[in-house]
Design a protein that fits this description.
Elements: H1 4-22, H2 28-33, E1 39-46, E2 50-51, H3 55-65, E3 70-73, E4 80-81, E5 86-93, H4 94-125, E6 131-133, H5 143-152, E7 166-168, H6 170-176, H7 179-189, E8 196-200, H8 203-212, E9 216-220, H9 224-234, E10 239-243, E11 261-263, H10 266-269, E12 276-283
Parallel strand pairs: 6-11, 7-8, 8-9, 9-10, 10-11
Antiparallel strand pairs: 1-5, 1-12, 2-4, 3-5
């Protein structure tokens, strides 16, 4: 995501929206104490152990306010950081440093929190064939940032949006009339390069999804015992995914089942932020 084309097409406008939300007409506090341009520097300091993600977003916020800003980083996305670490020094117009501080930190703290939480679950899956996936349960207008943070933390992205893949959930099946009919309609309508995933809630639906030729079968909110039986029924004829309130606290119970993927909305909707601060601003 941190290439110039992606930044210009997808990221800049979202960052500008966040800045406009925070500065409707002026930053009255900064303008009270800083009446004109003056060069200064400030440190970016980690206040909690974790995985860092979003450094280029942090930098870009200040670049949008001050094209001459300079950021010297002492870590990179994916690094393990420790409480007290000096992660960066930002130098530029003091007005930009003050006005952009909260927005820049909001992104960095949120993305680093997701990467940290994702890493804590991904470590539990090490040594197994199972991959950890995110979901579309993301903060509105934050999906590109949050899904990037999942990847930094060692997870994998499920479909990005509704245009990105076919996932027949309970209400789609209800609208179509049955699992079989939903899969048939998807095969008829969708491009042949698209895989078809079906969400199932019981073993009868598992059998119907296999017979209909689903490419991926999502075992939703099943007990471990039901999932093991479902895996036997599927018998390698489709890829398998399990979902349903998966968190760091309960993921280990799923490790011996043998599914290909575990999806967790908690990666993006329940990860706490990583505590990071900008400190020691002074004129240079």
């Amino acid at each position: 995501m941190n290439n110039p084309i992606t930044m210009t097409l997808n990221v800049d406008e979202l960052l500008l929206q966040a800045l406009r939300e925070d500065i409707t007409s002026e930053d009255i506090t900064t303008n009270s104490v800083m009446r004109g341009p003056k060069k200064g520097t400030v440190q970016l300091i980690c206040k909690q152990d974790g995985i860092i993600a979003g450094l280029f977003v942090f930098q870009r916020v200040f670049e949008l306010l001050d094209k001459a800003v300079e950021v010297e980083f002492f870590c990179q996305d994916g690094d393990q950081v420790k409480k007290g670490d000096l992660m960066a020094v930002v130098t530029g117009d003091i007005r930009a440093l003050l006005s952009g501080e909260r927005v820049a930190l909001n992104y960095l703290q949120r993305m680093s929190g997701i990467a940290t939480y994702t890493k804590s679950i991904a470590r539990l899956l090490e040594g197994s064939k199972t991959k950890l996936l995110d979901t579309r349960k993301t903060t509105p207008n934050m999906r590109i940032f949050e899904k990037y943070a999942v990847k930094v933390g060692g997870g994998y992205n499920h479909r990005y949006n509704l245009s990105d893949g076919i996932l027949l959930k309970d209400n789609h099946i209800g609208a179509a009339g049955s699992v079989k009919r939903a899969v048939e309609m998807a095969k008829e309508y969708a491009p042949f390069v698209r895989k078809i995933e079906v969400e199932v809630e019981n073993l009868d639906m598992v059998r119907e999804a296999v017979e209909a030729g689903a490419d991926i079968i999502m075992l939703d909110n099943m007990t471990p015992e039901m999932m093991r039986e479902a895996i036997q029924i599927i018998d390698g004829r489709a890829e398998t995914e399990c979902s349903g309130n998966v968190t760091r606290e309960n993921v280990e119970r799923l490790l011996t089942i043998g599914v290909d993927y575990i999806s967790s909305g908690a990666l993006t909707h329940s990860a706490p932020i990583l505590d990071i601060s900008m400190k020691n601003l002074h004129e240079v």
